[in-house]
Amino acid sequence: MFSYYFKLGVRSLRRNPALTALMVLTLAIGVAASVSTLTILHVMSSNPIPHKSERLFVPRIDNGLLETFKPHEDDRFDPQSTYPDAMNFLRDGHGERRTVLYGVSAPLEPVRKDLPVMSVTGLALTRDFFAMMDVPFLHGQPWSDADERAGAEVVVLSRDLAEKLFGADNPVGKRIRLMDKQFQVVGVRKPWRPVPKFYKLIGGGAFTQEDEIMIPFATAIRLEANPEGSISCQGKTEPGWQGFLRSECTWLQVFFETRTAAGRAELQEYLDNYADAQRRLGRLKRKQPNQLFDVMQWLEHRKVVGNDSRLAAWLAFGFLLLCLVNTVGLLLAKFSVRASEVGIRRALGASRKEIFRQFLTETAVVGLAGGLLGLLLAWGALALIRLQSEQLRIVAHMDWQMLGATFLLALGAAMLAGLLPTWRACQVTPAIQLKSQ
């Protein structure tokens, strides 16, 4: 019977084309608005590394000055690390892996004469980063432990930058002039852009383009590569690069990886013991609780999904509700003119249950039509959103989950809107309708 009712539903679309088109368009606009907003919210709040997000941790200790301490603002201290703390974290070796990183920017002189000098951005980081973050390689591999210890002038390029500089050739082993030094290319990454960009939220942004270069952290320190990003300094800082490194300035991002999620307790104990040892040396006078954030907690702490985004999603669903109310009115008008048809079917033996199934199936057909049109409108809306800014271009993409959600939302919304009109259609009294004919 379902296939028969479905055919009736398709035929009913042609009975009153203007009314049907208005219903489909109303439903499609509401679905497109809500799905477009929900898609952006879905991408922004997604887990960028789901298989190990509970094993990657950002540490936070408060090195602020005691005289500027305000208890009601205890959650505002910088979640970055100082250079001495970061080096201690690396040296102590806790966790399965650990990495320190910061943003860098440098002039690059291409070997090709037809290309001008360009400015490239990227990261200075330790070798463990590649394994911790599952960075995929197209050519080559990360630099070696020996290169890292020596602060060697080696670099990993993004695929886009490698193709710009060397075309389709494998550039591993070739050299580029970076920071007025000859850097050897040891690897080329495949396209890799976790969304959100959880490993560089501070001073970088959650939805920025992928990093063009990656160089050893020790190399960047040796070449005095100025940090590109946020720097927060406590107290006086000695002049010069070495004075900056010895200072209480927080500017480095640290990540730990544990073997299992249960390793969090052990890592927390280490962090507490480390902070106690530093207090005995005269540091960390505020005695604030030391914190560890896993990836999703880190995204929440940095408010990657702001209240504005959530409010926009609620407003979009409010607009969808308004569209559903209008659809209910249109369905009531459509079904009311078919009262005589219902009366005849009831007189011939059709039960109210069968009438309900028929009209609800017809409503579902309207929902499917509205879903198809809503999908096209959503694609168009997302395309327009992508034109607004670089960050929106990254997040305004529909995946298979949202594609399925579009049809389910349209179908569910149409059937919800059709419950009252369908129930009203079932209440038709056969005798009264037959008598009026």
From TrEMBL:
First and last residue of the signal peptide: none
Compartments it resides in: Cell membrane
Chief location category: membrane
One GO CC term on file: plasma membrane
InterPro entries referenced in this protein's UniProt entry, alphabetically: ABC3_permease_C (IPR003838), MacB_PCD (IPR025857), Macrolide_Exporter_MacB (IPR050250)
Membrane topology of the entry: Multi-pass membrane protein
Top-rank taxon: Bacteria
Entry keyword set: Cell membrane, Membrane, Transmembrane, Transmembrane helix
Domain ABC3 transporter permease C-terminal, residue spans: 315-429
Domain MacB-like periplasmic core, chain residue ranges per copy: 20-268
Name of a matching Pfam family: MacB_PCD
Molecular functions per Gene Ontology: transmembrane transporter activity
Membrane-spanning ranges: 311-337, 358-382, 402-420
Name the UniProt record assigns to this protein: ABC transporter permease
Organism: Massilia atriviolacea
Source species taxonomy: Bacteria, Pseudomonadati, Pseudomonadota, Betaproteobacteria, Burkholderiales
